[in-house]
Design a protein that fits this description.
Number of domains: 1
Shape: globular
Strand order of the largest sheet: 2-3-4-5-6-7-1-8
CATH class: Alpha Beta
Largest sheet: 8 strands, antiparallel
Radius of gyration: 16 Å
Number of strands: 8
CATH topology: Alpha-D-Glucose-1,6-Bisphosphate, Chain A, domain 4
CATH superfamily: START domain
Structural class: alpha+beta
Number of helices: 2
CATH architecture: 2-Layer Sandwich
Order of helices and strands: EHEEEEEEHE
Distance between the termini: 8 Å
Length: 164
Amino acid sequence: MSPSIISVIATLTGVTPDDVFDRVSDFASFGDHVPMVDRITVTDPESRDAAGYVRSSSWSTHFRGGLLQWVETDTVDVPGRTVTFEQSSGDLGSFDGRWAVRETGDGAIEMAFDAAVDIGIPSMADMLNPVAAQELATGVHQIVDGLFGSGVVSVETGSRLTQR
């Protein structure tokens, strides 16, 4: 199987890196901004400290006339301003990636989303994985617009089909 890789980079102004990270790591709020989200439930971690925590999130999204559902493990690194995720169960063959926030040095903030998605049907991977990646990119664009509105300076998207 060949997963598709998606990368979305948004350049933001008028916000702090911590504010961007707080919003991006609040997965439960994504449904307020993205029509394709049916529901997201985030399970509070057993323990939380300044360095970060691990939590579970359950997702249900509209995809091609049906619902796509999965559960993922999210590792939240507060000082590093990253959330790394990996599907632990669900409809996809595999889905993992990360959200990352950093200062660019010119007063702007960069929010990056990178993920690999494999729909899990080997005979149709070359056709369906890019479709899933495109739907994912659309959802991330909607999240960025919904969370940051007029603070969005630019959003760049790239994707490719990996070869194994």
